[in-house]
Write a structure and sequence with these properties.
CATH topology of the largest domain: Rossmann fold
Strand order of the largest sheet: 6-5-4-3-2-11-12-13
Oligomer: single chain
Radius of gyration: 19 Å
Order of helices and strands: EHHEHEHEEEHHEEHEEHEEHEHH
CATH superfamily of the largest domain: HAD superfamily/HAD-like
Number of strands: 13
Structural class: alpha/beta
């Protein structure tokens, strides 16, 4: 995926969870339940009155651009039925707001979300004709990131010097600011991350988001979980009224009971996400991407499809 707004990236942990890496995720305990029937007992009293917000990753979760078509018609029917019951639909994606619009258009995705949570940091709502910032969160986020890059300037120079010593690495800039890199290999990115981890002492708010060979720098406080929490605050929606679904590293912060009661992932999810969902009593779909999302929603809320409005 092209660097600006790349969609699936892992999120660096906070200082209290330092070194929470994929290696630790692989060490998670086995699923709590032996069968899906046992797992479903935890939710057997759920109905559509229990959910008011869906937080959904886009690439690899709702759509799979390599497929033809990139999403199943069943997903469209499912989301339309959910929306008819007054549930808010939110994309929670690593894309920029411009790339959200481009992705909807390119994939001809007919269900326009009510909200777009973008680049793990910004909150937008659809006003009927265009996207607009929802509340003052985005401006605060921008201010905090500007401050972060200002007081991290010397450290960023050190990082850039190291980056340029690695063969084939690409430097990414926005408004002449060094904001990230694209490495040639995953192993090279591992080395790059180790360099940052070993030298960032004294900058506790400096963090990064990574997807394989893509990385960009960010403030520690911003991820898919925290922007979901802000949307919930603005809407007056509780975590136990929220469904969240995703497939990759950067989805892990929102795939947490702190932010959503109903947790799910499609079959194409990385093992770390599947393990996290199982240990949190969520639903791992047998189908991939959009079909898996539809399967998860029908699993948690079967009565809406048995008795549509």
């Amino acid at each position: 995926m092209q660097f600006p707004g790349f969609a699936r990236i892992s999120v660096r942990p906070n200082p209290q969870e330092r070194r929470f890496t994929s290696r630790k995720l692989r060490a998670l305990v086995p699923p709590v339940y032996e069968t899906m029937h046992e797992a479903r007992c935890h939710y057997n009293d759920a109905d559509m009155n229990d959910v008011r917000l869906l937080s959904m990753d886009f690439d690899g979760t709702l759509v799979m651009e390599s497929d033809d078509p990139p999403f199943p018609e069943q997903l469209v029917e499912t989301l339309n039925l959910i929306r008819a019951n007054g549930v808010h639909l939110a994309l929670n994606t690593g894309r920029t707001i411009e790339l959200v619009e481009a992705g909807l258009e390119k994939n001809q995705f007919p269900v326009r979300p009510d909200f777009a949570l973008t680049t793990e940091r910004d909150v937008y709502r659809w006003n009927g004709t265009s996207w607009e910032a929802f509340g003052d969160w985005n401006s605060i986020c921008e201010t905090r990131h500007n401050a972060l890059f200002e007081y991290s300037a010397e450290f960023l120079k050190e990082i850039e010097r190291f980056a340029l010593s690695l063969p084939g690495i690409r430097i990414h800039r926005e408004s002449d600011r060094f904001v990230g890199v694209v490495t040639k290999t995953v192993e090279q990115m591992d080395k790059f991350c180790e360099f940052i981890d070993h030298r960032q002492e004294g900058l506790p708010e400096f963090s990064y988001q990574r997807n394989l060979i893509y990385l960009r720098f960010c403030h520690l406080d911003y991820n898919k979980g925290t922007i979901l929490a802000e949307l919930q605050r603005l809407l007056g929606v509780a975590p136990n009224e929220t469904f969240a679904v995703g497939d990759n590293f950067n989805d892990l912060p929102m795939l947490d009971s702190k932010f959503a009661r109903y947790l799910a992932c499609p079959a194409n999810s990385i093992p770390e996400v599947k393990n996290a969902i199982r240990t949190k009593e969520g639903f791992v779909a047998e189908a991939k991407s959009g079909e898996g999302v539809s399967q998860a929603l029908r699993y948690f809320f079967p009565q809406i499809f048995e008795n549509p409005p």
